[in-house]
Write a structure and sequence with these properties.
This protein is α+β, with helices and mostly antiparallel strands. It has a single domain (about 5-160), classed as Ribosomal Protein S5, domain 2 (2-Layer Sandwich), CATH 3.30.230. The chain has helices spanning about 65-80, 105-120, 130-140, 140-145, and strands at about 5-20, 25-45, 50-55, 90-95, 150-155, 160. Strands 1, 2, 3, 4, 5 and 6 form a six-stranded mixed β-sheet that branches. A hairpin with a 4-residue loop joins strand 5 and strand 6. It holds the Pfam family GHMP_kinases_N.
């Protein structure tokens, strides 16, 4: 059964750099706010164990794409936990509207959406905390997308406190 999953954009309503770690990541404080705008992933489970990205992204080999990396990471983690049904696979396509490198978290959102969607579709039953920990292996912004709500973030962005910023209108411009 083919299903469609929203993969929203996010804004950093403020961003303070608080330090630099030995691994090159900056420590920070920020407030993440989700937008009702973003990419859409279409996922159809397979029973032959194959993962296919049906809409490749120009300049990004499939095996480097965060969508496929997230799916493979979930497969490995669920298999190690004994929670991956035999033959779990998926055909995944993306309607990509968020610009790559635009600061809206498109790739991180796509990765989180895949983790959450395939966890549900495959019936792996990994917890939100487990999915967020997997997401952190893919990128610092992935955990907030796994959680799915606005949050104050610290550390490299992985220490999250739920937040409810004022509802406002935001204008996001893409000059072309």
């Amino acid at each position: 059964m083919m299903t469609r999953w929203p993969s929203p954009a996010k804004l950093n309503l403020f961003l303070y750099i608080t330090g630099l770690r030995a691994d090159g990541y900056h420590t920070l404080q920020t407030l993440f706010q989700f937008l009702d705008y973003g990419d859409t992933l279409t996922i159809e489970p397979r029973d032959d164990g194959q993962l296919r990205l049906l809409t490749p992204v120009d300049g990004v080999p499939d095996e480097e794409n965060l969508i496929i990396r997230a799916a493979r990471l979930l497969m490995q983690a669920a298999a190690q936990a004994g929670k991956l049904p035999a033959g779990s696979g998926a055909d995944i396509s993306i309607d990509k509207v968020l610009p790559m490198g635009g600061g809206l978290g498109g790739g991180s959102s796509n990765a989180a959406t895949v983790l959450v969607a395939l966890n549900h579709l495959w019936g792996c039953h990994l917890s939100e905390d487990e999915l967020a920990a997997l997401g952190l292996q893919l990128g610092a912004d992935v955990p907030v997308f796994v959680r799915g709500h606005a949050a104050f973030a610290e550390g490299v962005g992985e220490i999250l406190t739920p937040a409810e910023p004022e509802e406002k209108w935001y204008l996001v411009a893409h000059p072309g």
